[in-house]
Amino acid sequence: MSSYFIWIMLIGMFLMMWFVSRRQRAMQEEQKRRTEKGLVPGNWVRTIGGFYGTVVEVDGDVVTLATPLGDETLWSKRAIAAIEEPPFGSASAHEESGSDVEQADNDIQDSEQDAAEPQA
């Protein structure tokens, strides 16, 4: 009686492991398909090493990526982890935030001058 129970448990565990591995394999294939589809010039990508760059050219298994400064590097397709925008902002967004800081500094100086003037 107990040997039947052990065999049923082993078969059940084997089936669960098989279903889980099958699902993981399908998810990996879907991710690979989406990455292949997104490797077009102009798209931002992230490599497995954490490098962000824009796709310049795809030639077989080699992808040419450009840095924000314009330097080009060669990468294997397998090194591309995801198609995603970089977490840092663009240079124009940084310049806009700098003008906001200057405006805030001017406002503070104006309020300090108003407080320093004697009351008549």
TrEMBL record:
List the biased-composition ranges (Acidic residues): 98-120
Keyword Transmembrane (UniProt): yes
Q: Where is this region: Disordered?
A: 86-120
The cellular location(s) given in this protein's UniProt record come to: Cell membrane
Sorted alphabetically, which keywords does the UniProt record give?
Answer: Cell membrane, Membrane, Protein transport, Translocation, Transmembrane, Transmembrane helix, Transport
The answer to keyword Transmembrane helix applying to this record is: yes
> According to Swiss-Prot or TrEMBL, what is its membrane topology?
Single-pass membrane protein
Which InterPro entries does this chain map to? Answer: Preprotein_translocase_YajC (IPR003849)
List membrane-spanning regions: 6-24
Q: What is its main location?
A: membrane
Family in the record:
Belongs to the YajC family.
Q: What PANTHER family does the annotation carry?
A: SEC TRANSLOCON ACCESSORY COMPLEX SUBUNIT YAJC (PTHR33909)
What's the protein called, per UniProt?
Preprotein translocase subunit YajC
Q: Can you name the source organism? A: Actinomyces viscosus
